[in-house]
């Protein structure tokens, strides 16, 4: 996306959307989701860090956490 030239349809550079989960902020007793929660937490953190790194290149990064 960084190397991509702006077009009429996409003059800003682009957008990245990552899918997280509500397990990042909540816990469910009786369900063993530690591995799932850890990986989804990494997705949310990746979105934050990429957002900071790519902002100057006009690339938006967001994460959604359905549920």
Give structural attributes.
1 helix, 67 residues, alpha+beta, 18% strand
Strand order of the largest sheet: 1-2
The tally of domains stands at 1
Order of helices and strands: EHE
**Main beta sheet, described?**
2 strands, parallel
Structural class, by secondary structure, is: alpha+beta
Give the integer mean of the pLDDT values.
87
> How many H/I helical runs?
1
Describe the overall structure.
The protein has one domain (14-64). By secondary structure, it is of the alpha+beta class. The protein has one helix and two strands. The protein starts with 13 loop residues before the first strand and ends with a strand. Helix content is 31%, strand content 18%. It has a two-stranded parallel ribbon with strand order 1-2. The longest helix is centred in the middle third of the chain and has 21 residues, at 34-54.
TL;DR?
With 67 residues, this protein is of the alpha+beta class. The protein has one domain. The protein is 31% helix and 18% strand.
């Amino acid at each position: 996306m960084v190397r991509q030239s702006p077009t009429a349809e996409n003059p800003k550079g682009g957008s990245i959307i990552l899918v997280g989960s509500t397990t990042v902020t909540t816990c469910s007793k009786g369900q063993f989701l530690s591995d799932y929660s850890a990986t989804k937490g990494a997705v949310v953190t990746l979105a934050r860090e990429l957002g900071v790194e790519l902002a100057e290149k006009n690339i938006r990064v967001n994460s959604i956490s359905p549920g």
